[in-house]
Protein 1
Amino acid sequence: MSLIIPGHGVKLEAVLRQPERKPLRGAAVICHPHPVYGGTMNNRVVFRAGKGAINAGLAALRLNFRGVGASTGEFENGVGEQEDVSAAIDWLQTKFPRLPLVLIGFSFGAWVGLQVADRDPRIVAMVGLGLPLDHYDLDFLTENVKPALYVIGTADEFCPRDKMEQLARRLPPYSDVRWIEGADHFFTNLIEQVSCHWIRSCHERNGVHVSGPKSKVQGPKSQTDFSWPWTLGLGPWTFRSDGADLRGRCRLLLCAAQV
């Protein structure tokens, strides 16, 4: 379904796709790479990420940032684009008020989207593909309190392995970095290896708790509990996030869906 989302002083072109099987298990906002260099919501990696989300039971919302495609406005160096992400989250929450929300970003879309996801309590988990460390500061990820997955190619020209490994050493233990051997920034010829490893259950609880083999983090009260098994070998994580809008119980399985 093609649609126009009201933004902050702009109108944003977007596409919403939903799995045929119901009930929905969640919803995802998917952010595209740099618009100045041709990035759009139809980018191959973004499209395949959306397909993976759908296969995993999520509604997938891909949007064009301001100034891209039919979206009004102009490029704003990541500042206005963060407002676009917030507008997309607003729209998804209104459309699916009882579902947990996930953010997926690729390249520039990861830098923009993960900043919003980090501070917005409605986003319960986040995925970054091809982090552009050579161009942007992503140190904010070291303070992130949500489950996060970062998928990088070992030949990524915009994310040197030494820089990513330095950042990885400072990430919280409930963040995970996974490498795809030989993949460049766009995962050329290796896109099928990019898997979405996301959340596996949610039910009403109180308190924030992130636990894994080596860590436990406490935070503000919450009503959403997620367990998060990674298909690439990381054992199950549990996440409770601010989810006061989630009433009763719901089940979410977003594990090992190929994009």
Protein 2
Amino acid sequence: MLNEVRSAPQSAQPSAAGRPGARLAWAVIAGLILERRRRCAAELELRQRLMQVVHLNRSAIAGALSASVAHELNQPLATIQNTAEAAILYLKAGPPNTTRIEHLLGNIIRDDNRAAKKIGAICADC
């Protein structure tokens, strides 16, 4: 459809005997129309490919951001879990070392606050 060149009705085409070079002029006009259609099709394809690249770029950025957020949150959460497990072990030991357990619980609170600050910073950027 884009590569079709429709010929003008017979009444619109000048006769070859009427003007010298008339056939050449019509051929040039037809060639220019065809070239314009090809260029428009190429521009449309270029725009579509550019939109695909933009979409892929946004997806890559979102993936990298998600990985970064997951890493930033997993570190304090893993620390909280490890500290809580250590506190449980101290509670199960003979006479519980309340000073050590109190210190571990303080670490849990500190790590929880650190995770909350990271979440708050992420939400502030949204």
Protein 3
Amino acid sequence: MHPNQLLYLALFSVLNIPITLGEYISSVSTFFQRIYISRHALAAYLLLLSISIILVDQFTLIHPFIRDDNRHFTFYIYRYLLKPTFPKFSLCLAYAFSFHFLFKQVVNSELKLMRFILWLGASTGYLCLGELVEFRYFAIPFLLLCFELENRNFNLDVEGVHKGENRYTDREKMIWTIIIKGIINLGVFALFLFGEFDN
């Protein structure tokens, strides 16, 4: 059992979610305002943070392929983020934020809450039984999450809960994703062009 896959999925989803950069920044600032003002929001975040810390402490599994094969992203993520103690536990702040962020992006009605719970359960069954962490395994849960977000951004508003919200074009929604992918690709180019490959 590898429940940390859900933590990785949440962070991956937040970094790749198809929303506008302005909406992303607005959501992040609203999150910090809620944490500062509301005791309930702070308690929810601290609960998510506690769960993340327990999962990272008790269930961090490193597959031998990740530890030994320096040709993959996950090797460097393990080496620099999951192996050293401080970065490994510092990421718990990001994991807790990611779950809170995704919940606020998706859930705004009881039906959406049920869908989010079903998505979480299906993602748990799909991801948590394997020890190997590969980003391609996140594709199906991430696409299902994106389909849920499309209800907000396009005219698929069957429930009628997004009537007053702005609609964005595909180009506006993809700017954040393109920026993140560009930064990752620049880092990979720098790593493979200028880095030394040692274990």
